[in-house]
Every structure is written in C-alpha cells, then in structure tokens.
UniProtKB/TrEMBL annotation:
Family: Belongs to the LysR transcriptional regulatory family.
Name by which UniProt lists this protein: LysR family transcriptional regulator
Any one Pfam family match given in the protein's UniProt record, by short name: HTH_1
UniProt keyword terms in alphabetical order: DNA-binding, Transcription, Transcription regulation
Any GO BP: DNA-templated transcription
GO molecular function: DNA-binding transcription factor activity; sequence-specific DNA binding
Domain of life: Bacteria
PANTHER family: HTH-TYPE TRANSCRIPTIONAL REGULATOR, TRANSCRIPTIONAL REGULATORY PROTEIN
Location of the HTH lysR-type domain: 5-62
Length: 291
C-alpha cells in the first residue's frame, strides 16, 4: 500500500513550482539544495509521477500535473486557513497569486489595484509578471491573466471585467500628420494594430520609429518623434501629449480576467479573479480615458 504523504512534503513541491528551481525553493524555505531534491524525489516516488520537467530553464510543471499542483495549493490554503478561522471565524483569500498582463497594465493599472487588495487581505501576496506576448498559463507561469482582447483564446476561461479605449496623441499639434510611430512585436499583431497599419498605409504615412511596447511608444511620442495610437489611460495621463485627430475609429477593447481552462474552476483562482475583476470595474473611467 502506498504511504500517504503529509502536508510538509507538498511544501517542497510548491516551493519548486513557485520559484522554478531547486535553489530558489531552498532559499524560500531556508533549507539546503540537497534537502529540496530529496523531498521532491521522495514525494514523486510515493505518488508514482514525475511532477516536473527539468530543462536548462529550470523546473517546469508537467502539463498533465497542473491539476495536482493546484490541488496542493488548495491544501496549502486550507491548512493556513485553520488558524485564521479560529481567530476570525472567516478565511479570506490568501497565499501567492501570480498575475500576468501587458507592460502598460503592470506599470499603470495593476500596482495600486493589487496594493488595495493586499491591504484588505493581509495573508495575500502577488507576483506581477509583465509580458506583452502573454505567458503560457499551461506551464503554470501565472495563475491569472489580465488581458485586453476582443476574444479569449480557447485555453483560457474568464469574464470581462472592464473595457479599455484607445486614443491618438502627439507631443503637439505641430507634429506632421504623416509622421507616425509604428506598433511591432506582440502588440503589432493585435487586430487594433493591424487596422491602424492598414489605415496609415493608405495615407502613405512615414513611420519615424516603432516599438513593441505602449510605454515605449508613449516616450517616443513625448519626444516628438511622431503621432501615436495609445491606450487612453496612457495618452490622457501624459502631461507631454495632446490628443490629435484620429485616423480610424477604434471600438473599446474588453479586458478579461482569466485562468487556464484546466484550472479555472479551482476555488482559490475563482475567488482571486472575482476580486481582481471587481477592482478593475472601479477603474473603468480611467481605462476609458478619464483623467
């Protein structure tokens, strides 16, 4: 009969999952490298599964073990909740939530929002992962994604929390109407960017510079290099930019708060998404361009 692992075994597995390496887990837990290796190997042997894929990048969660790792996280939350229940009679959202979003959201929108959540939920902490190309949630690189998009991909499940408007800006109205900044990389592949490119190509526009980040585009526009399309919360929030005549009509973009489809029903992640969605709703005016 297989020996049943105790909770302490799972602490080592979760530490490796969170840090992506044995050395990182050792530092997090305050033990040595060999102890982490031994404890992870022992629980893998007892469970009869290989929990991690080892590579030069570190330790990744095997896709087929995503649910197992999330179940361990649920156990962690439940164990930690026992004392809180005894003290307060109610267990708030707790633990580490990994949130990924675009660089502009990670820079302007999410920090104050997550700070307010952390103040209300004292046992909750966040890892904020900025990536315009979007992280692969199937590898458990993140728990929740805050994603501006007209349609979620099939591997994500979530709800629309708010909408984001775009605007057109320049350092001054004197910036030539045919001098524009281009969108490249991940943001350049978005439907909004493609429509902008088509509209500007019809006008035989000169692209004076380009960037794969709205934050970089904002800085380039503030330096006077050209006109630019930006999320309204960036453009209207900049003291160095003024609005200019739009070259096309851009419908507001929905902002989804989602998780990987395999983990979307996990109670911890459902609650985290609900809290983040409610906080984003409160930012709707700013996201639509209110100063």
């Amino acid at each position: 009969m297989m020996q049943r692992p105790n909770w302490d075994d799972f602490r080592f597995v979760l530490a490796v999952a969170r840090t992506g390496s044995v050395s990182g887990a050792a530092r997090h837990l305050g033990v040595n490298h060999a102890t982490v290796l031994r404890r992870v190997a022992a629980i893998e042997a007892r469970l009869g599964v290989e929990l991690f894929e080892k590579s030069v990048r570190g330790y990744d969660i095997s896709p087929e073990n995503l649910r197992l790792i999330e179940a361990a996280r649920e156990v962690e939350t439940a164990v930690n909740a026992v004392e809180r229940l005894a003290r307060a009679g109610e267990a708030p959202l707790a633990g580490v939530i990994r949130v990924t979003s675009t660089d502009s959201f990670c820079h302007k929108i999410l920090p104050p929002l997550l700070a307010r959540l952390s103040q209300r939920e004292r046992d909750l902490s966040f890892e904020l992962l900025s990536n315009n190309a979007h992280l692969d949630l199937s590898r458990l690189h993140a728990d929740v994604t805050v994603r501006p998009t007209y349609k979620l991909p099939d591997d994500l499940v979530g709800d629309m929390a708010a909408q984001m408007a775009f605007g057109f800006y320049a350092a001054s109205p004197d910036v030539p109407a045919d001098h524009w900044l281009g969108l490249t990389g991940a943001i350049g592949r978005s439907p909004v960017a493609q429509k902008l490119r088509e509209a500007l190509e019809r006008r035989k526009t000169t692209f004076t510079a380009a960037a794969d980040s709205f934050l970089s585009l904002q800085s380039l526009a503030e330096a006077g290099l050209g006109r630019v399309m930006l999320p309204a919360f960036l453009g209207n929030g900049s003291a160095g930019l003024v609005q200019v005549e739009p070259v096309l009509e851009v419908p507001p973009v929905p902002i989804y708060v989602a998780s990987h489809a395999d983990l979307a029903d996990a109670p911890r992640l459902r609650l985290a998404r609900a809290r983040i969605s409610t906080a984003l709703e409160a930012e709707q005016e700013q996201l639509l361009g209110g100063r």
